[in-house]
Amino acid sequence: MTPSPVASSTQSPRPNLAFRRLRGQRSPGEFAASVRRAAREIGERVSCDARYIGRVEAGEIRCPNYAYERVFLHMFPGRSLTDLGFAPRSAVRGRAACPAEPVPLARTEFEFPHHDEESDVRRRAFMTGGTATVALASLTPFGLASDGPAGHTSAHPAAARGGRTAPEAGVGAVEEAIRRIRLLDDRHGADGLYKRAAAPLRTAFALLDAGTAAPGTAERLQAGAGELAISVGWLAHDSGRFDDARSHYAEALATARVAGDPALEAHAFCNTAFLARDAGRPREAVRAAQAATRIAAQLASPRLLSLLALREAGGWAGLGDRTGCERALARAQALFARGASDGDPEWMSFYGEAELEGLEAQCYSALGDWARAARHARRAAALQDPHFTRNIALYTAELADDLARAGHPDEAASAGMRVLHLLTEVQSSRIQSMLATTARVLLPHRRASGVSAFLEQHASAPRAY
Fold it and tell me: Structure pTM?
C-alpha cells in the first residue's frame, strides 16, 4: 500500500517529553487503562493501548483527535494541549507530523472581504507563508509558469540547500498545501479558495508525471497529489462547480488505483458519493458509498465506516427510501459509538458528533420530515467546535430551512440572521443557496416576528452565487 502523505515524514519526530512526564512511574499499558477509564467518565470511547501511548511519547502523534483531546483535558484539568506537549491543531490540520522545509511563494492577491483581523492574517499567511499555493510551479524542472504576477518566477533555494531535488522539496509543499486548504476551508468556505487552489494541483501532477522522483518520494507525491485533488474537488463542490468537482474526484480515484492506495480510494469514493447526492444522482451516491465501504473495511476505522454509512443514507433519502435510509443511519450511529481509533484518517478530523447530527438532519430533510430534521440540525450547530466556522454556518442554514418548512417562521428567521452574520466570514455558494431557498419559503410569512427584518437583511447581503 502506498503511504498516505499524512503518515510520511522526511524528518524524525520530536519526542513528547511533557506527556512522558505525566505518565510518571506507570507503564504505558497502565497509563492507557487510565485513559480509557477517564474516557468512560465523560462518555467517550477510545481504543487507547500501550502502543498509542508510545506513539504519543515518541512524537508520532503531534495532536490528538477530538475524542482523545477531550479525554486528556478531562484527565489534566487546567492544562491545554500545548501544556501536554502537543502542537496546536491548526499546525497539523489535514496531516500528521510531516515537517518540510518551507517553500518560498510568489506574492499573489487573494481577497476575503468582510473578514476580521484574524481572518486577514490567516489569508495572508496562506498566500505568502512558506508553501506551495501558487509558486509551487517554480519547483518544477520543466518550466511551468507561475500563477502569480506575470513573468514572476524564482529558483527554489530550499531544493538547492542540502542537494534536494525539486520533487523532494515539492512533496512537502504539496502536503502543506493540503493542510492549509483544509484549514482555510474550515474557517471561510470554498468560494475564494477554489481558483487559487487549482494551481498547485496542476503542478503536483506535473511533478509526478515528470518521473524524476526517487521511489519513496514518488509514492508520497502520488498520495499527496490524490489528496490534493480531493481537496480541490471539495472546494469546487462547495462552490457549486459540480462538473469540476466530479473531474477532480475521478482524478483522485484514478491516482489511488494506480498507486494501490485503499485509503485514498475510499476517500475519493466518499466524496464522490456526497457530490452525487448534492447533484441529484442519489442512486450513484448509494453505489459510490457502498464501494467506499468495501474498500474501507480493511482500514480499521469504525469512524470512517460510520461516515460512509451516512453517505449511503443520504443517497437512500434522495431516492425517498426511508427504510434504507434509517438502516444506514442506524449503522452509522453504531459504528460512531465504537469511538475513535488509530486507523482514523487525518482528513476526517471534521467528523465528530456535530457532523453526524448534521448529516442526519440532511437525510430527514430530504425525506420531508422537517421537525425531525430541525432537531438534528439544532444539535449539530450547538455541538460544533468553534474552529469549524463554515460547518456552523451550514448547520444553522439547515436549521433555518427546516424550521421554515416545519411552520416556525419566527425561529427560522432568527436562525437565518445568525447565518447572515456568519457569512461575513464564510464564502460558500452552497450555504448562500440554502439561505436563499429559506428566504423564498418565508416570503408569505412577512408578518411573523423577525421575518421581515431577516428578508430585508438577506436581500441586501452580497451574493457569491
Answer: 0.66
